[in-house]
Amino acid sequence: MENIALIESFSEFKDDKLIDRVTLMAILEEVFRSALKRKFGEDDNFDIIINPDKGDLEIWRNRVVVEDGMVEDDNSEISLTQARKIEPDFEVGEDVSEEVKLIDLGRRAILALRQNLIAKIHEHDNTNIYNQFKELIGEMYSAEVHHIRHRVVILLDDEGNELIMPKDRQIPSDFFRKGESVRGVIESVELKGNKPAIIFSRTSPLFLEKLFEQEIPEVFDGLIQVKKVVRIPGEKAKVAVDSYDDRIDPVGACVGVKGSRIHGIVRELGNENIDVINYTSNDQLLINRALSPARVTSVKLNSETMRAEVMLKPEEVSKAIGRGGHNIRLASQLTGYEIDVFREGVEEDVELKEFSDEIDAWIIAEFSKIGLDTAKAILEQDLDDLVRRTDLEEETIREVVQILREEFDQ
User: Which residue range or ranges hold the Transcription factor NusA first KH domain (predicted)?
Assistant: First the structure.
């Protein structure tokens, strides 16, 4: 293959991959120097001149002229007789530059050159893609569903970049069709081998935060700040918002008249229930607001253990805990405090773990999952509600209730 023909094929990469001229020249020189090292052992005495725009390539080997029979290194030295075949007036000690044709490298070396170039350009592309998406971590992004598998959805963006959305980054109610446009956030980017793995997420709290930025003008303009977002994807979320302008009601602005502003966000998230609360640096007040819709009687904090004892009227307890314990779990995540619920007016109660001799540990764990850790917490619940909220059989729950009632002589 002639030099020009080879360079023309290299120029195709430049056009296809949109590689700038300087980068392409650097990659080409690196590839050729690798080939020269394999052929001659060293490449320090070679000059490589590349002009990919014109399809020009020249390789010159520089050697020193020595007396006949005194050549010790064929790569860096040339005998006087051989030098004078190039130019008849060369003398010992002078430098000789001789052009090296690609054909001199051998057919196998030329094929290796092209393969090496392809690998280097792919590596360059992958590095660029990695760096591009590294800058986009946490940002909203749209891509089209390309392939749906059992545990993952593969998406392609407008530039043909592949994004991966694992099952656990999908909202449980999500249902996708090939060709459908999907919104999410870039959660992470990793290099696996030389290929970037771009993880796309719809379950990240950042996705909800970015939806607020897109859908609510005051958030986009910076008049309202989203302080913190916590989510149980597809189920429930809590968003703490604040405004530095006293004239703006941050919660009202985010929710809109009759929920008009937040409705689109709820629909995007598969009808995820979103509580928007006013942020405050007062931890007691923040916990009070975070447990909404429950009305809290009092809050006692222990800042060393980061635990909060919250007193509520008995009828407010189930509201504070929420379905499946979602409300109290999210309130804890939002405030940073482990929240313990106590019923107002109840002087005596017994933690459920005290009944471990009579009640199996896995049954106690099932009640704890929905925020019921004491005997009276369970006794105050409706039987049908307990069956619905736990994975326990009705007969098992009846036996537990009977044991607890005997403790309180009921």
Answer: 202-279
